[in-house]
Amino acid sequence: MLQLKDVNYQANGGQLSILNSINLTVPKDEPSLIVGRSGSGKTTLLEVISGLTRFTSGTIRWNGKIRNIQHRRWLSGMVFQFPERHFLGLTIGQELKLGHRYIPGNRIQQTLEQVGLSKISLHAPPESLSGGQQRRLAIAVQLLRDPQILLLDEPTAGLDWSMRDEVLTLLTDVSQNRVMLIATHEPELFFPLVHQAWRLEKGTVKRLYKL
Ligand SMILES: Nc1ncnc2c1ncn2[C@@H]1O[C@H](COP(=O)(O)OP(=O)(O)OP(=O)(O)O)[C@@H](O)[C@H]1O
């Protein structure tokens, strides 16, 4: 379970308040949603949780223990908005192995099966995949790190309907045994998958849905 207590984040040397006293308890084994308009602070919140951004005050606990920024980097996997823009590997195989000294081939194959990409060639460039497949590859890259906390920023942005369905089905499957938090401005797409959703407005959690 992930717990945020009174988390604040201010930018520009404290001049600009972006997250204001965020309190959240996010359960494991089911996707949860952060809903909010553009500029409401969704990406910032995911970056704070994942340890990519240092918050100003508050506490973040994992399974009851306070976790510092290094712990959270280690615990978390973040799938950025439009992750395909950030692929670095020249091939799908390279992309999957980035940052690892060694990954057994069967582990790569299992992960590709998990995301429904078992038939692709590891020698092909990531750009040869369809939009939905590229999103699934980005999720596979994170799953290979086996994160306890999986954070996804607008995972369906820019996808057509059929590809969105592919990604939505996958998200339910990979939420088992971990916390999954999805930031979106299109909550209606995700409501069939989630039990809990929070609305962020100007950096404040305004409402809690128990669906
Ligand atoms: N380091 C920073 N310095 C100044 N302003 C920042 C900083 N980080 C974020 N902001 C501002 O904080 C606000 C929230 O940004 P954030 O990207 O978290 O919103 P968002 O809800 O994810 O928006 P979108 O859906 O458009 O991605 C924005 O107004 C953004 O410009």
TrEMBL record:
<dbReference type="InterPro" id="IPR003593">
    <property type="entry name" value="AAA+_ATPase"/>
</dbReference>
<dbReference type="GO" id="GO:0042626">
    <property type="term" value="F:ATPase-coupled transmembrane transporter activity"/>
</dbReference>
<keyword id="KW-0934">Plastid</keyword>
<feature type="domain" description="ABC transporter">
    <location>
        <begin position="2"/>
        <end position="211"/>
    </location>
</feature>
<dbReference type="InterPro" id="IPR050095">
    <property type="entry name" value="ECF_ABC_transporter_ATP-bd"/>
</dbReference>
<dbReference type="InterPro" id="IPR015856">
    <property type="entry name" value="ABC_transpr_CbiO/EcfA_su"/>
</dbReference>
<dbReference type="InterPro" id="IPR003439">
    <property type="entry name" value="ABC_transporter-like_ATP-bd"/>
</dbReference>
<comment type="similarity">
    <text>Belongs to the ABC transporter superfamily.</text>
</comment>
<dbReference type="InterPro" id="IPR017871">
    <property type="entry name" value="ABC_transporter-like_CS"/>
</dbReference>
<dbReference type="GO" id="GO:0016887">
    <property type="term" value="F:ATP hydrolysis activity"/>
</dbReference>
<dbReference type="InterPro" id="IPR027417">
    <property type="entry name" value="P-loop_NTPase"/>
</dbReference>
<dbReference type="GO" id="GO:0005524">
    <property type="term" value="F:ATP binding"/>
</dbReference>
<dbReference type="GO" id="GO:0043190">
    <property type="term" value="C:ATP-binding cassette (ABC) transporter complex"/>
</dbReference>
<dbReference type="Pfam" id="PF00005">
    <property type="entry name" value="ABC_tran"/>
</dbReference>
<keyword id="KW-0813">Transport</keyword>
<keyword id="KW-0067">ATP-binding</keyword>
<keyword id="KW-0547">Nucleotide-binding</keyword>
<protein>
    <submittedName>
        <fullName>Possible ABC transporter, ATP-binding component</fullName>
    </submittedName>
</protein>
